[in-house]
Amino acid sequence: MLLMKFKNMFTRRSASIKRDIRPYWIHFIDHNPGCVEAENEENAKQIALKITGAEVTSCNILPYPADPRINKLSECPSFCYDAEHCKGRTSCPKRPACSE
């Protein structure tokens, strides 16, 4: 009985899990940089271009979302306070981390 409850709980939870969304720091031509949440770098570039209409010059992963946010797909707050310093990293290099 306990195993069945666990199996049902896991099945419901698995169905509700969204795709793996990551924050990316995007630089543009003639537009201020911003954070885009997407599944991968290519999708982040496409989303940024579609929303801003500006050509993307670089796209780097961030450890956490940062402001300004161009789109918001996750419930995660904007923990990253220095996106220019943290871009290209998957964990916060500061001690203590911005998320603490």
Folded structure, characterized:
By secondary structure, this protein is of the alpha+beta class. The protein has one domain. The protein is built from 3 helices and 3 strands. A 3-stranded antiparallel β-sheet has the order 2-1-3, covered by helices on one side. A hairpin with a 5-residue loop joins β1 and β2. The radius of gyration is 17 Å and the shape is globular. The N terminus is likely disordered.
Topology of helices and strands:
Elements: H1 2-16, E1 22-28, E2 34-38, H2 41-52, E3 56-61, H3 83-86
Properties at a glance:
single chain, 100 residues, alpha+beta, three-stranded antiparallel beta sheet, 3 helices, globular, disordered N terminus
Q: How many strands, what sense, and barrel or not for the largest sheet? A: 3 strands, antiparallel
Shape: globular
* Lateral arrangement of strands in the main beta sheet: 2-1-3
Q: Tell me the helix content.
A: 25-40%
Strand content: 15-25%
Distance between the first and last residues' Cα: 40 Å
The overall pLDDT average reads 84
Low-confidence stretches: 1-17
Number of discrete helical segments:
3
- Report the strand count: 3
